[in-house]
Design goal:
Rossmann fold, four-stranded antiparallel beta sheet, 8 helices, 2 domains, alpha/beta, globular, six-stranded mixed beta sheet, 12 strands
Length: 271
């Protein structure tokens, strides 16, 4: 089975919309064109994976969607709100976003429960409410019983579960993930992919994930956005045909391996 380019339109509303977005970075020598003109819609409840060679602008694109860096040109909308007005980030749009990075970035002097509840504390949510929410989320991400542990007492996978719970604490509509499992061993990474799929199916969140792993992209995505080398452009978009829920054995099928091979060859051609 070969992956087919996605030319279909969806009737679902766009949770994220990029219109003619690009990004330049100023450097000591000369400006660097990181991301070329990009148009992209991500539908509400969709799981989209950004895939491409190193340095192609995947993380830059995700950080712009996350309100961490401003685009140089173009328009970026989140849940039908403008995310940027010039270089000014719009707080009402940012409230719809949760972000998870490769490093869990948990505060070592806070317990797991306190780390998860921290965004709610910053929003001045009453203590009893935020701790109840933290306990609810530990159950959702599979670390119930570890609420009072310190981050150093957790495995890498458990720390990432806690980071995901923290990103979900204020119930954002969109979850952005930048190589969240890249530092984990292969078996833990497979387990986390299963858990992430389950979490996504339970919550109905819109997810945009950056990865270098082609099998991970094929396993998780509804659609894969393939980016070209810098300046990053959308080379092609593919719809992944496998039904949900997907299981680990999905990756051993001939169809799965054929799609992974097809994507690898495409990446080699554009690199």
């Amino acid at each position: 089975m070969q992956l087919k380019p996605d030319h279909a339109t969806t009737s679902r509303a766009a949770a994220i919309r990029l219109e003619a977005v690009d990004k330049w970075f100023g450097t000591r020598d000369e400006p660097v064109h990181a991301l070329d003109v990009t148009d992209l819609d991500v539908a509400e409840g969709e799981f989209v994976v950004l895939l491409g060679p190193s340095g192609c602008g995947k993380t830059t694109l995700l950080r712009m969607i996350g309100g961490l860096i401003a685009p140089s040109h173009g328009r970026l909308r989140v849940m039908d709100r403008d995310l940027w007005q010039g270089n000014a980030r719009q707080s009402d749009a940012v409230a719809d976003l949760g972000i998870v990075f490769q490093d869990a970035n948990l505060f070592p002097w806070f317990t797991v429960e306190q780390n998860i509840a921290l965004p709610l504390e910053l929003k001045k949510v009453p203590k009893a409410t935020r701790l109840a929410r933290a306990r609810e989320l530990t159950r959702l991400v599979g670390i119930a019983g570890f609420e009072q542990r310190w981050p150093r007492e957790l495995s890498g996978g458990m720390r990432q579960r806690a980071a995901i719970a923290r990103a979900l604490s204020y119930d954002p509509d969109i979850l952005l993930m930048d190589e969240p499992f890249g530092a984990l061993d292969a078996m833990t990474r497979d387990a986390m992919n299963i858990e992430l799929q389950s979490l996504w199916m339970q919550t109905g969140k819109t997810v945009v994930l950056v990865t270098h792993s082609i099998p991970e992209a094929v396993f998780l995505a509804d659609r894969i956005v393939l980016l070209s080398p810098r300046p990053g452009r959308i080379d092609s978009i593919f719809e992944v045909p496998f039904a949900r829920p997907r299981v680990i054995d999905t990756q051993t099928s001939a169809e799965f391996q054929s799609i992974v091979s097809d994507l690898r060859h495409r990446l080699e051609r554009i690199a």
